[in-house]
Amino acid sequence: MIETDPGPKKPHNCDVNIDHQLNGPSSKNIDLGVVPPLKTPAKLDPEKAPSSEKADFERAIELTGYGRFHYLLLAVCGLVSTSEEMDVISMSFILPSAQCDLELSTQSKGWLNSIIFIGMMVGAYAWGSVADSLGRKRVLIAISIINGLAIVASSFSQNYELFMFFRFMNGAALGGSGPVIWSYFAEFQPKKKRGAMLSFMAAFWTLGNLFVAGLAWVIIPSEIGGSTGGFVYNSWRIFLLVMSFPSFMVAALLFLLPESPKFLISSGRQKEALEVFRGIYMMNTGHSKDEYPVKQILVDELMHTKPEKQIEVKEHKSKLKRMMSDIVEHSKQLFVPPILKFTMISITINFTFHIGYYGLMMWFPEMFNRFDEWSRTHDNAEADICQVTAYVTQFGTHSADARCDSHIHSDVFMESLITVAAAIPSNIFAVLGMDRLGRKFFLVFATFSAGLCSAAMYFVYNKTNNLIVSAIFSSVISCGNASLDCLITEVFPTNLRY
C-alpha cells in the first residue's frame, strides 16, 4: 500500500544530493534505497500512527532487525563473489599448464588473460538494465548458469580459438555478476551496517584466490585425466571443470533468497516488497510475520522512478526495446552534471586500480614459474625480472626451439598461496575499520602502497624478493578493493550503479 508525501525533504547523504541536483526538485526519478526518513512526524513517527506503522524504505529495512537472514545473504552473495574471483584468477594457473596443449606463445597467453576482461566490459554494460527489467535475483541465477556452462565448454575446447571464445562468454557473464550482486547485497543492508558488511563481502574475493591456489596445487600437478585419439582431457582441464561447480551451486542457493525489495517497489509491487520485509523480520527475530510493525511503505512523489503514464506507454513496448532504451538513458545520465564528475573520477580510479590489481595478480604465478626455472638452471643466481624473462623466452621453456614443458613445480603453487593468504589480515582490518576510518582513507592508503610495491618490482633479484613484494601488494590492494566497492555502491544512484 502506498502513501505519498508531496512535502519537501532535505537530502543529507551523497546519493540523494546527486539525484536532487541531477533531476531537480520536481523530478520523479529518485533512487528508492537512499531517501532519508521523512521529517513529517504524522507520516513517519510510529508512535503517532494510530492504526498502522508507516515507514520509508530505510526505516522498513531497520525494523526487520539483523540476524539469520543477513548471515544467509552474506554466505550466498559471498559465494557468488568467490566464484567470480575464482573464474578470473584461475587463468593465471591454467596458462603455464595449457601452453603445450594449446600451443601458446607469450603473446597468446596475454590475449587469453585479456579476453575475459573484454567480455566483462561487454557484459557489465548490458546486464544492469536487464536486472532493472527482470529483477536482480533472476538475472543473478541466469548469469551463474551461463557462467558455469561457459567454463565447462572451455574445459572441453581442444584448440586456442574455441578456448578463447568460451573464455569471452565466461567474461560476458561475469561482467554482470559483479555489479548486480553488490547492489543486490547492499539493498538489504541497514545504513549503519552497510560499510562493514560490504567490506566483509569483499573479503570473499580473498577466499576465491585461496581456493584457486589450493585447488590448482592439488589438481594440476597430479597429471590425472587422459586422451583418446585426438581428444585430450588432462589435469588442467579437470581443474577448470572444478572451477564451474561454484557457479552452479550459487544458482541453486539464490532460489533461497527473495527478490530485492527495492526493485519490487520501483516496479510498483509494494505488497510483494512488504511481504519480503515481513519474511526477513520473521527469520531474524523468530516472531510471527504479523508482528512486523510496518504496515504501509511511505513512498514520496520524488521516489517514483516511473510515472504511471510512462509505465502505461512502456507496457506496449517489447522488453528488449525497453532494456535498450534504459541502457541509452542511463548512459546519458552518467555524462551530465553533476553525475559527470563522479563518473570521470570513478572511471579513472577503476581503470588504474584494476590494471594494477589484475595485471599483477594474474602475472605473479607466471613470474614465480619463471624465477623458479631461472633458479634451477643458474644455481639460485640473482637476476632482475628483465634478465629472467629474457632467458626464459630466448633460451628456456618459452623459446621457439625449446621442447614444450608444461610441468609446474610445487614451489610455484606454495608461493602463490602465500601471496593470496597475505590479504587475510588486511581484509579483517578493512571490515573493522571501514566505517571508522572511512572509504577514502582505505582507498588512498591501498593505491599509494600498491604503487610503491609495483615500483619495488624493479629491485626484485630473486624468488624471495619476488614473494615478499607480491605478498605485500596482495595485502594492501585488498583493502583498496573493499573500499572501492563500497564507494561505487554508495555514491551512485541505484539505476546507475550497473
Automatic annotation (TrEMBL):
Q: What residues does the Major facilitator superfamily (MFS) profile domain cover?
A: 71-498
**How does the protein's chain sit in the membrane according to the entry?**
Multi-pass membrane protein
Its family?
A: Belongs to the major facilitator superfamily.
The segment annotated Disordered runs over 1-28
Keyword match Transport: yes
According to its record, what are the GO cellular component terms? membrane
Q: Provide this UniProt record's keywords sorted from A to Z.
A: Membrane, Transmembrane, Transmembrane helix, Transport
This protein is called: Major facilitator superfamily (MFS) profile domain-containing protein
Q: Which GO terms describe its molecular function?
A: transmembrane transporter activity
Q: Which InterPro entries match?
A: MFS_dom, MFS_sugar_transport-like, MFS_trans_sf, Sugar_transporter_CS
Q: Where in the cell is it found?
A: Membrane
Q: Per its UniProt entry, which superkingdom is the organism in?
A: Eukaryota
Transmembrane residues, as ranges? 110-127, 139-156, 162-185, 197-220, 236-257, 342-364, 416-434, 441-461
Say if the entry is tagged with keyword Transmembrane: yes
